């Protein structure tokens, strides 16, 4: 049996929680992604604990607990300023509506818990001695870099169809391959994905898109026809096939969405609809719309100083990133230099404001707004110095 002697701090911090359960007469193990990532020497962002104790028993064992998902057997324990999700050994009923189980069955053995998990690499457990429990050859699959369903892949995907997205997401994140029966089962059952809420699909899609192996994973996403079951991508493989051939993989979510929208050749009025269909936030949607529009502008012409000012630094850099990934030849250095050389970069850097104009005797209203806008344009174009006195004499001249 493999034994880990030097555990990362995050496990050491959690050990007293597992030991407390053991003292109370229950079994407790580290499970899931944290054990996988430990074996891969990847960063461990959180840990999951599985126990033979029922949720009520977990609550009796610790002082501070929160009923996170008590129906599903999960209790959060607050310990030493950290929070830990502790889930009772459970299985999933096989056929509900292909979504997360709405009821679960608690079971007595770790083995029964592990065998309903999605992939062998996620079905490892570790006890308090640091011993790895590997009932489904997860360690071999880790060595061979394989995402392989535990047992019958069709059953696993019927229990939770999101797992099909998770499979390609791990291919991207871990640079793994899909085991052939697992891949075949996804192709065969890809339609089940349409039953899953967009929020959950989006989360996996973003992880897929931002993973280091996202271009290969995206090819798999199309080959298995999962792409046919998500918003705006049905019947669009001929446009999306560019993605695996991109120069680079995106590393920002804004870039990922912008690139998909550009490849799909969506018109301007469809961008926010696309973003809404994917249940993205308004802030994300607004930024992506700005990026795509500026990208279109850059592909046609060189932006004016005023257009550079309007788009702002963040969107400029985001658009340059998108152009870079798409292999679009733009002179990013010139654009950034020009932006940095702008006399003002924000409205509030203008030497005057509306109140100043009112004091000069201009009546508030649309007319005043136009004058202010004109002054701003003159300043940005370098035709007028951003200086109160200069601006004052300019106003006197034009009025
Ligand atoms: N649809 C799912 C989701 C999760 N799991 C199991 O629950 C564990 C924890 O799930 P989660 O935190 O969602 O995923 P991780 O595998 O831990 O990946 P991440 O690093 O992204 O958290 C997984 O490892 C897996 O054993 C599963 O079997 N089926
Ligand atoms: Mg996890």
From TrEMBL:
Query: Has the keyword Transferase been applied to this entry?
Result: yes
Q: Which reaction is the catalytic activity of this chain?
A: a tRNA precursor + 2 CTP + ATP = a tRNA with a 3' CCA end + 3 diphosphate; a tRNA with a 3' CCA end + 2 CTP + ATP = a tRNA with a 3' CCACCA end + 3 diphosphate
Locate the residues binding ATP: 33, 36, 117, 160, 163, 166, 169
User: CCA-adding enzyme C-terminal domain: which residues?
Assistant: 249-391
Write out the GO biological process terms: RNA repair; tRNA 3'-terminal CCA addition
Database matches in CDD domains: NT_ClassII-CCAase
Span of domain Poly A polymerase head: 28-147
Against Gene3D superfamilies, the record matches this protein to: 1.10.110.30, 1.10.246.80, 1.20.58.560, Beta Polymerase, domain 2 (3.30.460.10)
Q: What family is reported?
A: Belongs to the tRNA nucleotidyltransferase/poly(A) polymerase family. Bacterial CCA-adding enzyme type 3 subfamily.
Subunit structure comment from the entry: Homodimer.
Q: Which HAMAP family match?
A: CCA_bact_type3
Identification of the protein by name: CCA-adding enzyme
Gene encoding the protein: cca
């Amino acid at each position: 049996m493999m034994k880990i002697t030097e555990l990362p701090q995050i496990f050491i911090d959690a050990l007293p929680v597992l030991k407390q359960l053991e003292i109370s007469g229950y079994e407790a193990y580290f499970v899931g992604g944290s054990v996988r990532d430990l074996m891969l020497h990847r960063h461990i962002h959180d840990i999951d604990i599985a126990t033979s104790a029922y949720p009520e028993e977990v609550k009796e064992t610790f002082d501070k607990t929160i009923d996170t998902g008590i129906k599903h057997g999960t209790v959060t324990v607050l310990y030493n300023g950290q929070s830990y999700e502790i889930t009772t050994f459970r299985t999933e009923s096989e056929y509900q509506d292909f979504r997360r189980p709405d009821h679960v069955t608690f079971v007595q053995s770790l083995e029964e818990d592990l065998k309903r998990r999605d992939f062998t690499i996620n079905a490892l457990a570790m006890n308090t001695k640091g011993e790895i429990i590997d009932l489904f050859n997860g360690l071999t699959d880790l060595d061979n870099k394989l995402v392989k369903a535990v047992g019958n892949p069709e059953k696993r995907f019927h229990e939770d169809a999101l797992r099909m997205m998770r499979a390609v997401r791990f291919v991207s994140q871990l640079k793994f391959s899909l085991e052939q029966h697992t891949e075949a089962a996804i192709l065969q059952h890809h339609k089940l994905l349409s039953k899953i809420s967009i929020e959950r699909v989006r989360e996996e899609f973003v992880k897929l898109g931002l993973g280091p192996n996202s271009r290969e994973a995206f090819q798999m996403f199309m080959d298995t026809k999962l792409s046919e079951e998500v918003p705006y991508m049905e019947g669009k493989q001929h446009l999306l096939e560019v993605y695996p051939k991109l120069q680079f993989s995106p590393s920002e979510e804004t870039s990922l969405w912008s690139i998909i929208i550009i490849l799909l050749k969506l018109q301007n009025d469809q961008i926010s609809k696309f973003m809404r269909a994917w249940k993205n936030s308004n802030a994300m949607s607004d930024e992506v719309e700005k990026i795509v529009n500026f990208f279109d502008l850059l592909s046609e012409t060189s932006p004016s100083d005023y257009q550079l000012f309007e788009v702002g630094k963040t969107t400029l850099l985001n658009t340059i990133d998108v152009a870079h990934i798409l292999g679009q030849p733009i002179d990013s250095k010139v654009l950034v230099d020009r932006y940095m050389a702008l006399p003002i970069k924000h409205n509030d850097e203008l030497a005057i404001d509306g109140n100043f104009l009112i004091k000069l005797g201009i009546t508030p209203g649309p007319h005043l707004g136009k004058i202010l806008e004109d002054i701003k344009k003159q300043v940005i174009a370098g035709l007028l110095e951003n200086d109160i006195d200069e601006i004052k004499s300019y106003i006197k001249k034009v009025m």
